[in-house]
Write a structure and sequence with these properties.
The chain folds into three domains: about 50 residues, no CATH class; about 170 residues, Cytochrome-c3 Hydrogenase, chain B (Orthogonal Bundle); about 60 residues, no CATH class. Helices cover about 40% and strands about 15% of the residues. It has nine helices and ten strands. Strands 1-2-3 form a three-stranded antiparallel sheet, with no helix packed on it. The protein has a three-stranded antiparallel sheet with strand order 6-7-8, with no helix packed on it. A hairpin with an 8-residue loop joins strand 9 and strand 10. Helix 4 runs antiparallel to helix 6 and helix 6 crosses helix 8. The protein starts with 15 loop residues before the first strand and ends with a strand.
């Protein structure tokens, strides 16, 4: 029965529809709908992504050099990821089989700045209110303002960590948001000596604050291991980029996937053939797509 229910429409068969709209403390816009039976037991939950994107169509017919800038508008939090993905795809189009060492390093640095600021925002601004106050605490204070009032040092570290990541992006991409530093075939800027020193000056403190965040999570896990081991756990296949030696790579490499049991499904697969591995499904109640490994159906 559950597979046939549609939370985007009126409930049927005696079920009651509850909507949480909008969902807060997420990157983007969405709502959650639940179908409850007469005993208030949840029969179905769905997350609806309500923002229309359509960039696959928007970029058709545009000059190729515009694409790395256009696709960044997918997100204000992780624009660099889209910026670099488009640039890397277009490297193949313009025949740039191998970038110069400077271009490779600039792109990697840009991406690492993106990862730092995005993770800092997620951990300190979005997740830490629940972690620091507890899931059963007063909802009204579980936000970044509440964290700043109760844990000012932690809030300050989160803000400054994200600021450092944003500065890395500014110096490598030209702007903190929606930069233009990566172009098909390479990059259009380099770091001056003064800019390198500016970044180096705060590296040690940034690493120290990052380790402090890890210690916070470790301490919480030690207090409630059973809770955190199972919280948010969803058995799923996973895929990532890996370097030639098999280590995780965040910018370039080949594809590796593991199933929900941790068994390797494929390894060192050429990224240019990714579309032979993945199929995207669409649903009528959300703009989000549902990718899955084609062989798993």
């Amino acid at each position: 029965m559950a597979n046939d229910l549609e939370t985007a429409t009126a409930p049927r068969e005696g079920l009651r529809r509850v909507a949480i709209d909008p969902v807060s403390r997420v990157e983007g816009h969405g709502k959650v709908t639940l179908l409850l039976d007469e005993h208030n037991r949840v029969q179905q939950v769905r997350l609806h992504i309500v923002e229309f994107r359509g960039f696959e169509r928007f970029i058709q017919g545009r000059p190729y050099w515009e694409v790395p800038v256009l696709v960044q508008r997918l997100c204000g939090i992780c624009p660099v990821s889209h910026h670099l993905a488009a640039s890397k795809a277009l490297d193949q189009v313009v025949g740039a089989r191998q970038l110069t060492p400077t271009a490779e390093k600039m792109r990697r640095l840009m991406h690492y700045g993106q990862i730092l600021q995005s993770h800092a925002l997620h951990f300190f601004h979005l997740a830490s209110p629940d972690l620091l106050f507890g899931f059963d605490s007063e909802v009204a204070r579980r936000n970044i303002v509440g964290v700043a009032q109760r844990f000012p040092d932690i809030a300050r570290q989160g803000i400054l960590l994200r600021k450092y990541g944003q500065e890395v992006i500014r110096l490598t991409a030209g702007k903190r948001v929606h930069g233009t530093g990566s172009v098909p075939g390479g990059v259009n800027r380099s770091l001056s000596g003064a800019e390198r020193l500016e970044l180096q000056r705060d590296v040690a403190q940034t690493v120290a604050w990052s380790r402090d965040a890890v210690r916070i999570v470790r301490a919480m896990h030690e207090q409630h291991p059973a809770l955190y081991d199972r919280f948010g756990h969803v058995p799923s296949s996973l895929m990532s980029l890996v370097a030639p030696d098999g280590s995780l790579d965040l910018y370039d490499g080949a594809l590796r996937a593991r199933d929900a049991d941790g068994q390797i499904m494929f390894d060192q697969f050429d990224v240019r053939g990714y579309d032979t591995l993945i199929t995207e499904a669409v649903k009528p109640w959300t703009y989000m797509k549902f990718p899955y490994f084609t062989v798993q159906g």
